[in-house]
Structure formats: structure tokens, C-alpha cells
Amino acid sequence: MPDRRLKEEIELFHSFLRQNGLKKTYQKDLILETFLSTEGHLSVEDVYALVKRRDKRVGIVTVFRTLKSLTACGIAREITLGDGLTRFEHSYHHPHHHHIVCSECHKAIEFVSPELERIQAEIVGKYRFQPVNHRFQIFGVCEDCREQRSTVEPHEHDTEKIFARDAMKMALCMERRGIEFYRTAAERNSDAQGREMLERIAREDEQYVSELENELEALCRQERGLDRAPMFLHFDPCELENLIPDLRAFESGGEFRMDARSSLEVVLGLKQKAADFFKQYADKFIETEGKRIFNRFVDGESRHIGLIGRRLEEMMVPS
After folding, report:
1. Band of the pLDDT at 3, cuts 50, 70, 90?
2. 63 and 107 in a common domain
3. The CATH number of the domain where 21 resides is what?
4. Of 14, 153, 303, 309, which has the fewest Cβ atoms less than 10 A away?
């Protein structure tokens, strides 16, 4: 029986067969389940060999036609790696991504870059095109082949899991930078109440960082070598750095001073910018675990924003 994670894709495939007047058969379901339970870039021959282990009666033509149907309904995506073979990879609920391919050993590194997607959308818009599909591949020679090193066959990982891993790392990067900002501002702050407020916010965020770190460790334990898999989500750390406030407005005569209210207002501004940034970032992707992680980060920041807003309101109420 297929696990619950595959149920939606199976239903999508069956719906495609009905809409196109095609028969639902045991053999097609077997090919679908075999493909969905195997990671990597699979040729028709690869899938055929795997299916034959379970049922020798399945023919290679049936495998080919079923993979084409999976591509047509969006469950699979066709790619080429420069070796003359058409390969298939998981597509449904996996972020659209690109490949760096070694032309000698045909190793493929997958990556996604929102900045690259932005540039492509800008160019397409300039020429008033309605994009249907696009593919970006870089061919070259990997370091192992250049150095003539023997390599162990890389372990294929689910791109959705790697994307989730990198999304958590990105959220952690933002939280840690925020904590560093609060701690530095607290150390410089000559106002005792403002200093205590900043330290309090830092402690609250450190608790959230601990939860994220535990979640990241749990994710990496699910699959051997996931923590060492190449980076999939490429982002510019400067984009996060640009969210950090400039505190020079609170410097005067060589002294840095922020009272409790000003400290909360600065924190509130940073958290709102972070929430907006990650919300816009999440909107660039289809529904995946990585996108859900970004949206959970936004929800967490929004809850903290609400808490800080209530603290500000309490300060403004006359005693």
C-alpha cells in the first residue's frame, strides 16, 4: 500500500487517466508507485529495471508511456544530463529547480535561486511572453573529474527535503542575526530599562532558535547524509542583512541610548520587515515543506509582533 504522502499524486494520476479516456491498470499503478518511491534522475531503463523486480510481466513500452503520462499531468519532469538519455525526476510539490551537470561523469547538482527566477521573469516580461515552461542547465566538468579522483556514487535525496533543510537554515540565519543585533544594542545601551528589554527579546528569540535547531536535527535524521547534501536553496545573505536597522539615530555625544519604548519600536520594525520579507519569499514557491517552513516562520514572527505591540500599548497607558 502506498503511504499517505503519495496519495495525492496517485489521485492526480487517476484523474488524468479518466479525463483522457485512458484505462487505470495495475501495471500503471505499479510504475507510478515505483517512480514515486525512488529518488533521483531516472531513465526509462532505470524505472523498467526497478519495476521488473516486482513484476516481470511489465513491458518497457508500458513504462515509457506511463512516464510520459506522469509528465503530462505534472507528477514528473523530463530532463537531459548530456548523456543522450531522457530522464525523469519528481515534479509535483517539488520546487522548480535547475541543474549543474558534469559532462564527463554526468553527476547533476540541483539548485534553486529566487534571484535567477526574478531575472528570467523580468526578461520574459520585457518581451511580453507568456512563459509555459523553462529550464536552465549549466554543463561543465566537476572538481572530482578535473582532479581525476574516484568518487562514490552520490546518495540521491528528495529535493523537497533538501529545500526544507535549507529553508530552516535560512530562518535560523535570520533569527541568529537578529539576536546578535539585540545583544549588541543592549551592550551599548546606556538606558537600563531599554537594555533589559532588548535582552528579554534576545532570550525569547533564543528559545525559538533552539526549537528550530531541534527541528533541523530531526529532519536530517530522517535521511542518511541529508545534512551533507549540496546546498539547494541559494540566497543572498545581504538581503537579510539589509533588514537590520541603523541605530545611528540613537547616538548623541558619543553615547548610545534607547529607552524601553524605543527599544520595542525598533524590535517591532525589524520583526515586521522580517515577516514581510519571508512572506514574499514564500510566495515565490509552490506548496512544499520548505514553503510551509517559511510561512511558519512568518506566523512565529507575527505572534511575537503581537506580543511586542501589547507591551508597547501597556507602556502608553497612564499609570
Report:
1. low
2. no
3. 1.10.10.10
4. 153
